Automatic annotation (TrEMBL), chain A:
Domain GST N-terminal: 3-82
Keyword RNA-binding in annotation: no
CDD domains, A to Z: GST_C_Tau, GST_N_Tau
GO MF, one example: glutathione transferase activity
EC numbers, comma separated: 2.5.1.18
Keyword Transferase assigned: yes
Domain of life, source organism: Eukaryota
Limits of the GST C-terminal domain: 87-215
One Pfam family recorded for the sequence: GST_C
Protein name (Swiss-Prot/TrEMBL): glutathione transferase
Annotated source species: Carya illinoinensis (Pecan)
Catalyzed reaction equations: RX + glutathione = an S-substituted glutathione + a halide anion + H(+)
Automatic annotation (TrEMBL), chain B:
Protein name stated in the entry: Glutathione S-transferase
Family of this protein: Belongs to the GST superfamily. Tau family.
Source species of the chain: Carya illinoinensis
Coiled-coil region: none
GST C-terminal domain segment(s): 92-225
Gene Ontology process terms (BP): glutathione metabolic process; toxin catabolic process
Taxonomic lineage: Eukaryota, Viridiplantae, Streptophyta, Embryophyta, Tracheophyta
Enzyme Commission number: 2.5.1.18
Length: 224, 225
């Protein structure tokens, strides 16, 4: 049966890029549809009526939403180049860190970059505490997945690439090499890795301008 | 696979927590014996702080000395380790994705909308009731699609999404009984009304979700504070 894989995404979104990274790493052919966040297509709304968000993967007519759910589906459906470890404890660990990144790290980063000015110091402190957990988790490993890119690395694309853009857009620096040498090193390796570097939106100025227009110029002008 | 000895498997938790209930139900489905270490409300034990240093929250599963936290992650771990027992997640990747999607919805959207509904007053309460009701209507649709006429989201047996939602609705059923609101409505959500009864009566769930009277006791205490 001819396989049909469609992906609805947005070029600058780390969430839709995660799905593209997984598809490309596994050599899966897909058709990509660029969505406009302010003018979502009827097709997208049909495929994701609950959250009305990208990314949505449609495989042979069946839609799946939520990037982490999509990644698990991709790994279970196309078994080449697995992104999940085999051992149940390692798998639980991977799911834990992926959840931590989306649930804690990302909101923490946003708060530090674009939160209330009077809470800025506390927000930066909290965001750095989260990054410290990731610093400890990466340790001496090349990737969170070990020798090869795994689920957590893909989910951490926000830390690896987008964090730098948020920092520039808002003027708040979080991931310093002095405080986070291992995580900084991982970020360098990640963005230059095969299968990843081809999937990063390279128009940095355009993205920075977009984040500034969407979220503001930052919590503080002082921390540049 | 050899049965683990009871001391091999520990659950750190507190019986009223719906998240802790998920883990215990999953272990019961797999007939895994475990030691239940009850945390005292208001304080966190050394063991909890050591085994879940990132979130410092219950539930935590400790298996052979290794700790796993976050209830839905624990449930998937249980399913994968004790693979000879009845399956919790379905075998088809698409069905698994649908169950994971809705389980994430329960945690990210539905449960937050439920919080403090029984102690809310006036306009705030009305707004919460509307949110919860909207969520239940969506979950009813999901139930009808998923169950395909059978008793549970998972079909004939309790599965991942049943475990994710069951303890939440177990509590909601008690909140309804307190009066003042009717969240689980036979007209709007007939499937869920029947499902929550079947779920709470299931062998793996009985004893984990206490009788409605005991839940009402706790709710009354909360309202009194």
């Amino acid at each position: 049966m001819a396989e049909e894989v469609l992906l609805f995404g947005v070029w600058g979104s780390p969430f839709s890029r995660r799905v593209e990274m997984a598809l490309k790493l596994k050599g899966i052919q897909y058709k990509y549809f660029e969505e406009e966040l302010t003018n979502k297509s009827p097709t997208l709304l049909k495929y994701n009526p609950i959250h009305k968000k990208i990314p949505v993967l449609v495989h042979n007519g069946k839609p799946i939403a939520e990037s982490q759910v999509i990644l698990e589906y991709i790994d279970e459906t196309w078994k080449d180049c697995p992104i999940f470890p085999k051992d149940p404890y390692e798998r639980a660990n991977a799911r834990f860190w992926a959840k931590f990144i989306d649930e804690k790290c990302l909101p923490g980063i946003f708060n530090a970059c674009w939160g209330e000015e009077k809470q800025h110091q506390n927000a930066v402190k909290e965001a750095c505490e989260h990054l410290k957990h990731l610093e400890n988790e990466i340790g001496e490993k090349k990737y969170f997945g070990g020798e090869a890119i795994g689920f957590v690395d893909i989910v951490a694309n926000i830390i690896g690439y987008w964090l730098g853009l948020f920092e520039e857009a808002s003027g708040t620096k979080l991931l310093t090499r002095e405080e986070f040498p291992k995580l900084s090193n991982w970020a360098d390796v990640f963005v230059s890795s095969c299968g990843i570097k081809e999937n990063l939106p390279l128009a940095r100025d355009k993205l920075i301008a977009y984040f500034r227009s969407r979220f503001g110029t930052g919590s503080t002008d002082a921390s540049k | 696979m050899a049965n683990s000895s009871c001391s091999d498997v520990k659950v750190l938790g507190a019986w009223p927590s719906p998240f802790v209930m998920r883990v215990r139900i999953a272990l019961n489905i797999k007939s895994v014996k475990y030691e239940f270490l009850e945390e005292t409300i208001g304080s966190k034990s050394q063991l909890l702080l050591q085994s879940n240093p990132v979130y410092k929250k219950i539930p935590v599963l400790i298996h052979g000395g290794k700790s796993i936290s976050e209830s839905l992650i624990i449930v998937q771990y249980i399913d994968e380790v004790w693979s000879s027992g009845p399956s919790i997640l379905p075998s088809d990747p698409y069905d698994r994705a649908i169950e994971r999607f809705w389980a994430a919805y329960v945690d990210d959207k539905f449960f937050p909308s439920m919080q403090l509904i029984n102690t809310a007053q006036g306009e705030e309460k009305a707004a919460k009731v509307e949110q919860v009701t909207e969520g239940l209507v969506l979950l009813e649709e999901a139930f009808q699609k998923s169950s395909k006429g059978k008793a549970f989201f998972g079909g004939d047996r309790i599965g991942f999404l049943d475990i994710a939602l069951g303890p939440m609705l177990g509590w909601l059923r008690a909140i309804d009984k307190m009066g003042g609101v009717k969240l689980l409505d036979e007209v709007k959500t007939p499937g869920l009304v029947q499902w929550v009864e079947s779920f709470c009566a299931d062998g793996a769930v009985k004893g984990v979700i206490p009788d409605i009277e005991k839940l009402l006791e706790i709710l009354e205490k909360m309202k009194g504070n």
